[in-house]
Specification:
The structure holds two protein chains of two kinds. By secondary structure, chain A is of the alpha/beta class. Chain A has one domain: Pyruvate-ferredoxin oxidoreductase, PFOR, domain III (Pyruvate-ferredoxin Oxidoreductase, domain 3, 3-Layer(aba) Sandwich). Chain A has six helices and seven strands; from the N terminus they run βαβββαββααααβ. Chain A has helices spanning 14-27, 83-86, 119-125, 137-147, 154-164, 169-182, and strands at residues 2-9, 31-36, 46-54, 71-74, 94-98, 113-117, 184-186. Classes of the chains: A alpha/beta, B alpha/beta.
């Protein structure tokens, strides 16, 4: 079973990102569960969402929060300074970050692998959200697919986007694909 | 053909109502329930569901509308949570006393104040004695299935049924569920054919004055209907399994055959407890799990048969009866009293107001039960003092 925790801010689409992952995993024959950290969502406030992906439904029954994720996605680079963001992240896990900076420019401990993409810029380019508050969820999933293709391939994510994002599905799919190609990594 | 979809618990309930072909829906929005009726209103507007959606100004009116619709012969549905369910309280009695097979989904939310939107069972258990049947589910699939089953049972015994699922832990969690072929569902759940209906031009009285010479018989008949519901739940749960591949009973044992110790759970915490049991079994612990699914009618005999001869039982209550103990603890303990070889029973209060209950918490409860020697009651877990 793979456990992923997504950190974002209200309005960036973290909860929908975790739902797309679950839907995409299901499309390729895996079992998945996704849920938000049961908060009262407010625009700009930190939001956490969880995804569990398993090969069989028997592996999935846990219904508590994820405290030791395999990987994390960070939709806003300012969240990197919050201690909760890295809490429990397993050694060797991926940190997928929406940032204009390359991985080397970020001060992420070497026990983690890093993937970066400027999801905000891509979202603005495709008219997703506003310039001040871009909706980056579909773009960041492009980075996810780039490094964790063996978990969920890009095609499955692209297929799931219209299911969970009924407005501007085409633009969201393009943003996801563009982010896939622009992702930079540090192993 | 059946289809599989990734759905939240709330939307699984909406689909359950849709495939049950409900004819009247009346509801008032409240977090975390709102998505249930939001999707149903879309289904009605889009013509996917041939039903009337009655907008009302309160939950009290929502249940009033369901009572009227059901008395007129319609299959009626509503959903609510916490304060909304509390506001319905008077009309819950009305629905049950009028013997109307309404189905209500309650998304378990703790009662305020202090203000909260997270899960516990005190909202539904505050309505325990209204004459409604209560089914608590552990997954989105079970939520969907239980709506269909609830109508099937309710329409045979003429009592309303509440399907209860945990706020957020199920209501906002997305997971794959199977939606069965509509033709097969129609075969399992044919249209509602009530014994009597109110109709224009054919006036009859519902809930009219019953004096001391007749009232008690109405109550006796309600109790008999509840008792009968045990076997109806069992029969229909079996038939459901034959038709759709998922069998439901009022209780569900897990790794219990050779178990000396038992953990009893109600609701979504059951899933997490399954993992805890698997881990404990790997370490050689003789422990099993008993899921209590149907709480009203209360399955006395089934509980006695399963728990007799066990050493110790730990009951996890996501609720509290102030000044008493956990409600399921008290109910199960009293059910076991007539047994000669009854186990020692401990009650653990956990997860109130949405406090996370983890695999580690459940293993901790098991270890505490195993070593505890005094007959303590209402043991609180995870309270920060």
């Amino acid at each position: 079973m793979i456990e992923i925790r997504t950190h974002g801010r209200g309005g960036q689409g973290a909860v929908v990102a975790s739902k797309i992952l679950a839907d995409a995993a299901f499309r390729i024959g895996k079992y998945a569960q996704s849920f938000p950290q049961f908060g009262v969502e407010r625009r700009g406030a930190p939001v956490v969402a969880f995804t569990r992906i398993a090969e069989s439904s028997n592996e999935l029954p846990v219904r508590s929060n994820i405290y030791e994720p395999d990987h994390i996605m960070v939709l806003d680079p300012t969240l990197l300074s919050l201690p909760d963001t890295f809490s429990g992240l397993k050694e060797g896990g991926w940190v997928i970050i929406n940032t204009p900076s390359p991985p080397e420019a970020l001060d992420i401990p070497t026990k983690y692998k890093v993937a970066t993409v400027d999801a905000s810029e891509i979202a603005v380019k495709y008219g997703l959200g506003s310039k001040a508050q871009p909706i980056v969820n579909t773009a960041i999933l492009g980075a996810f697919a780039k490094i964790l293709e063996h978990v969920i391939p890009l095609a499955a994510i692209i297929e799931s986007i219209p299911e969970e994002v009924p407005t501007k599905p085409d633009a969201n799919q393009k943003a996801c694909e563009e982010a896939y190609h622009l992702t930079q990594i540090r192993i | 053909m059946s289809v599989k979809k990734v759905l939240t618990g709330n939307h699984a309930v909406s689909y359950g109502a849709m495939v049950s072909r409900v004819q009247v829906i009346s509801a008032y929005p409240i977090t975390p329930q709102t998505q249930v009726v939001e999707l149903l209103s879309e289904m009605v507007a889009d013509g996917l569901l041939k039903a009337i959606f009655v907008n009302v100004e309160s939950e009290h009116s929502a249940m009033s509308a369901c009572v009227s619709a059901s008395a007129a012969g319609a299959r009626a549905f509503t959903a609510t949570s916490a304060q909304g369910l509390a506001l319905m309280h008077e009309m819950l009695h009305w629905a049950a006393g009028d013997r109307l097979p309404i189905v209500l989904a309650d998304i378990n939310r703790a009662m305020a104040p202090p203000w909260t939107i997270w899960t516990d069972q005190n909202d539904s258990l505050s309505q325990r004695d209204t004459g409604w049947m209560q089914v608590y589910v552990e997954s989105n699939q079970e939520a969907f299935d239980s709506i269909i089953l609830a109508y099937k049972v309710a329409e045979q015994i003429y009592l309303p049924c509440m399907v209860v699922l945990d706020a957020f832990v199920l209501s906002h969690t997305s997971e794959p569920i199977e939606i069965y072929d509509q033709e097969k569902i129609d075969e399992f759940l044919p249209p509602y054919k009530p014994m009597v209906t109110i109709e224009p031009g054919k006036p009859i009285g519902y809930g009219a004055l019953a004096g001391p010479d007749t009232y008690m018989e109405f109550r006796y008949k309600m109790q008999k209907a509840m008792e009968k519901a045990v076997s109806v739940f069992e029969k229909e749960g079996k038939l459901f399994g034959e038709m759709f591949g998922r069998t439901y009973d009022l209780v569900e044992p897990y790794m219990l055959d050779d178990a000396e110790y038992v953990i009893v759970t109600v609701g979504a915490v059951t899933s997490t407890a399954r993992v805890a049991i698997q881990e404990l079994r790997k370490k050689g612990e003789k422990v099993g799990l008993l899921k209590l699914r149907v709480v009203r009618p209360f399955p006395f005999e089934k509980l006695r048969n399963i728990l007799k001869g066990k050493k110790k039982v730990a009951i996890i209550d996501r609720n509290i009866s102030f000044g008493h103990h956990g409600i399921f603890y008290e109910e199960i303990k009293s059910a076991l009293y007539p047994l000669q070889d009854r186990p020692i029973v401990y009650g653990y209060i956990a997860g109130l107001g949405g406090r996370d209950v983890t695999v580690g918490d459940i293993i901790g409860i098991y270890e505490d039960m195993k070593k505890r020697e005094t007959l303590d009651e209402a043991i609180w877990r995870g309270v920060k003092l």
